[in-house]
Amino acid sequence: MWRMSLCAGYRSVGCRIVGIKGLWGSRVVRTCSTPAIPAGRITALQAVDLWTNHFVERGVMEPDHSSLHILAYLLGAKTINSLERGKLSEFLSPEKTEQMWRLCSRRLSRMPVQYVIEEWDFRDLTLKMRPPVFIPRPETEELVELVLTDVDMRPGTGAGVDAPHTCLEVGCGSGAIALSLLKSLPQLKVIALDQSQDAVDLTGENALRLGLQDRLQVYHLDVIKDAETVLSLCRHVSTLVSNPPYLFSEDMDTLEPEIFRFEDHAALDGGIDGLKVIKQILTLAPQILSNHGRVYLEVDPRHPPLIRRWVEANVEEMRYVETRHDVSGRPRFCILRKEKSNKDHKLDLD
Amino acid sequence: MWRLPPPFLSCMCSTAGRVVWGAPRRVPALLRPLPPGLTCVFASGKKDVTDFPVLDEDELEEQFVRGSGPGGQATNKTSNCVVLKHIPSGTVVKCHQTRSVDINRKRAREIMREKLDVVYKGELSEVLVKKKEAELRKQDKRRKANDNLERKRLFREALAADPKPGSGAV
């Protein structure tokens, strides 16, 4: 049993206890699989220190953030700073200690923190997370901001005055984009698709938890394999938004273990040039969108010029509007617009 | 121009919250401290309206740890501390209040506006004005409480000197 001193300055270095003689005798080991739960009580801060050091020893990324996020969650807070000052110096109950050990051990296997605590925040929403459904990235918060900003600028686009407008999201994952838009735009309706049943289920769950299920429809559909069904469901959509799988297949192997081992590869791998799903979305877009309807995509930084060229050559009715950058300054978002040519106006009542 | 009339200011604020941040560019500072002697125009009569300065994104530099790799889907990091720097004044704000980068960025800007208000308006800044008002209210309360005690003391003394009011002269 691994006993710990309860003095405030205690720091562990894995299972090699420095400076304590004679306590362990022949039982000192160089590395352990998991630190045993201490026999005596420990404070929250001591638990964080202990696990941070252990994560460092085992090469787990973001060792300090990991322990802090897990501890905050256990103490009922979103972040450490929202805890009362004295909380960190308080002793953890046996139950909380056991929970801390259980959750941190999962993190040892490189499980992402978001899956360990089974939740994460996206803009002002807290969403349930569950492997292997893709975890929302911070860049995608900017994608939502882009769509919302544009909605304000565009005349009569679901800002309340006109009839409710519909948005289609391709690849909804945990529901982050769809639910953010629904929350911010009370008049909006959203159709969300995902090729993963797990994602469809999780989006539905999050919608219910947030009370946004009434204006949302979620379908288990693959935009490539089930194109006909998608087209039959989606007509006269004013906005098409997507964070589609956009990684290049060759880059999949260099992904960090957190992503490679736990997240759905189908949500990441966009084919040889990362454009497989993007191209399909843009091919279908003219039939899905009403005239002047817009597409908002999150993409790989190499994509924008490739997409522009490809669309100009292959999709007559889609105009490339602009590229926007993320906060790190990388080209990250593509905006396109449906522009029907004059001759089509006579043939179609749209 | 540093200060805009209140209605325009509130309109600017709601737009500023929706602007998509591009890579900040450096342009000459548009914000200047008020010339000495010129008083600020506050929204009169409205206790809760705070006239913090409007931020110019071109004067801000933002640091957010996303690594040197491609970011996006290729990275999953949970650190979301935002560091915002106001270039002309050198004011730095750090925010990691929430688990959302987007919210932290917005909060960092709110905090920056408060800080810049103090930096540029000094004595006249919103924060200091409110502090002074709170202090004055406290002093006022104390004075009234003391007055009350004094009045009660005098009343008791009067009673002691004349226990049966109306019983005739002592």
Automatic annotation (TrEMBL), chain A:
Q: What class of enzyme is it?
A: transferase
What is this enzyme's EC? 2.1.1.297
Which reaction does this enzyme catalyse, per its entry? L-glutaminyl-[peptide chain release factor] + S-adenosyl-L-methionine = N(5)-methyl-L-glutaminyl-[peptide chain release factor] + S-adenosyl-L-homocysteine + H(+)
Q: Tell me which InterPro entries the record gives.
A: DNA_methylase_N6_adenine_CS, HemK-like, N5-glutamine_MTase, PrmC_N, SAM-dependent_MTases_sf, Small_mtfrase_dom
- Annotated coiled-coil segments of the chain: none
Q: Which domain of life is it from?
A: Eukaryota
A Pfam family found in this protein is MTS
The protein depicted here goes by the name peptide chain release factor N(5)-glutamine methyltransferase
From TrEMBL, chain B:
Region Disordered: what ranges? 137-170
| Domain Prokaryotic-type class I peptide chain release factors, first and last residues per copy | 55-147
Q: Where in the cell is it found?
A: Mitochondrion
Basic and acidic residues bias: where? 145-156
- Cellular component terms (Gene Ontology): mitochondrion
Q: Pfam families recorded for this chain? A: RF-1
Keywords, A to Z, come to:
Mitochondrion, Transit peptide
**Which family does the similarity line name?**
Belongs to the prokaryotic/mitochondrial release factor family.
Q: What name appears for this protein in its UniProt entry?
A: Mitochondrial translation release factor in rescue
Q: Which organism is it from?
A: Gasterosteus aculeatus aculeatus
Q: Recite the lineage of the species.
A: Eukaryota, Metazoa, Chordata, Craniata, Vertebrata
